[in-house]
Amino acid sequence: MSELLLGNDLVVNEDSCNLSCEYCLTGQSNLKDNHRLQLIFTPPKRDTYAEGTDLAQRIDLVADRLRTRFDLPLLKVTGGEIFVVRGIMDFLEAEAAKHEVLVVQTNAVLVKDEHLERLASWGNVVMQLSLDSHLFHGNSYRVQTEALHDKVVAAVARIAASGLPTEIYGVLNDRSVTELEPFTRWIAGLDASIVFFPFPVRGPDAEQFKVRPDQVKLIEDFAAKYDELGRVLPPRPYFSRLLSFYHEGKRTFRCHLPRLVVSTFSDGVVTPCPNIWFSDMGNVLEDDGDGPSPLDKIGQTGMYKALLAPRPRLKACHGCFTPWDTLSMYFEDEITLDELCAAPTYAPERIRQLLARMKREYTEQNAPDAHA
Q1: Is residue 2 part of a domain?
Q2: What does DSSP say about strands 270-271 and 261-265: parallel, antiparallel, or unpaired?
Q3: Residues whose CB falls within 8 Å of the CB of residue 69, separated by 6 or more in sequence, listed in order
Q4: Looking at CB atoms within 10 Å, which of 130, 146, 153, 174 has the fewest?
Q5: With helix as H, strand as E and coil as C, how does 160-220 read?
Q6: Does the pLDDT value for residue 1 go beyond 60?
Q7: How many distinct structural domains can be found in the chain?
Q8: pLDDT single digits (tens) 12-62
Q9: CA-CA-CA-CA dihedral for 320, 326, 332, 338, to nearest 10
């Protein structure tokens, strides 16, 4: 892998959130000891980003070391819930100035109007909002009361109305899939520029939440209405992959995400896949310049060979399909660059050019005569 990277998926205080989604991946991850304790289900800790705080020193260094090493144009900041952190807007503003696109993932509840005004003023922010349905039943794995659900939905609608480029991430489970079509129609009715990405629930505990075999027809019927609903959906081939996932009972198609994006944490840990946290490549905060850096391992470890195999080898990969998959679809010639970059995350010209270059280099390196 070259020194090119598209982006850094920076996870801030992943065990601190104001919601307690039943299928939350943090409590199912084996990457860190504290993940196994499922601390996500305890009240969130109120950390602070401000000059001189431990958090500020750590995440400033993590973000800077990745950006300067790889000159990556995209930074995604997620949690946990990042708006639990006092002063997080100051970090976001500083990073927006250093990247072509700043992606802010949130459950929307704590986002205020003054946040939206400030985010919009930077000109390069994409909001990624987590919501499984506009109806309580379909969203009830994420929230425990109808009153909280109503608050979440109102917050999502308010963000959509702000004019900020917005992507909605909806987890498909045995409850939300029954409301997939009405939810999409609700999104389309927001009269905003939104792309809605439905994707399967993931993780070791997915069995208790997943779409049942008898419910797959709901997704088939939904995909058949693409001509009517496609204005707010990813490219049509996305649903061919999604249905393949359900018909085969697992992922059988190739993933290119680890060659494009790396995931880092606010405690400095680096892991090769933003989707599945299961391989610790070291701590970037402990990189003193005197020895090998964890960043030297990006694209180089044996784990990458498994993650980037033509067919998924790892059990965790078999159960994985996310909105990041449009990147893999582009590399596999299932969608065009224009289709990929219709999503606001990839729309800027610098990102288009980088993706085209990375695909071209990948194709040249893997051409049959390249290894003759």
Answers
A1: no
A2: antiparallel
A3: 3, 295
A4: 146
A5: HHCCCCEEEEEEECCCHHHHHHHHHHHHHCCCCCEEEEEEECCCCCHHHCCCCHHHHHHHH
A6: no
A7: 1
A8: 999 899 998 999 987 655 554 554 554 445 677 889 999 999 999 999 999
A9: 180
As a whole number of angstroms, the distance between CA 14 and CA 21 comes to 13
Q: 52 is written with which tokens?
A: 């001189």
Within a 10 A sphere around the Cβ of 338, how many other Cβ atoms?
9
Report the alpha-carbon distance of residue 156 to residue 195 in Å, rounded.
13
Q: Which two three-digit tokens encode residue 215? A: 């419910």
Within a 10 A sphere around the Cβ of 281, how many other Cβ atoms?
A: 22
Report d(CA 160, CA 152) in Å as an integer. Answer: 12
Tokens of 265: 């944490």
Q: Report the relative pairing of strands 166-172 and 7-11 from DSSP bridges.
A: unpaired
**Rounded Cα distance, 132 and 174, in Å:** 11
Domain-embedded: residue 20: yes
Q: Does 1 reside within a domain?
A: no
pTM metric for this prediction: 0.94
- The arrangement of strands across the sheet holding 270-271 comes to 194-200, 166-172, 125-130, 101-106, 74-78, 7-11, 261-265, 270-271
Q: How far is CA 355 from CA 73, 342, 345, 366, in A?
A: 11, 13, 12, 16
Helical H segments across the chain, by residue range: 33-36, 54-70, 88-96, 113-122, 136-139, 146-161, 180-188, 216-223, 226-229, 237-248, 302-307, 315-318, 325-331, 337-340, 349-365
220: containing domain: 7-371
Token readout for 134 is: 């506009």
pLDDT digits (tens, 9 = 90+) for 353-365: 999 999 999 999 9
Task: Match 């391992």 to its residue by tokens.
Answer: 297
CA distances from 326 to 130, 218, 336 (A): 18, 22, 10
| Count, residues in the chain | 372
Q: Using CA atoms, how far apart are residues 235 and 12, in angstroms rounded to an integer?
A: 30
What type of residue is 97? A
CA distance 287 to 209: 40
In a domain, residue 247? The reply is yes
- What CATH number is associated with residue 162? 3.20.20
- What is the spatial distance between Cα 292 and Cα 230, in angstroms, rounded to a whole number? 47
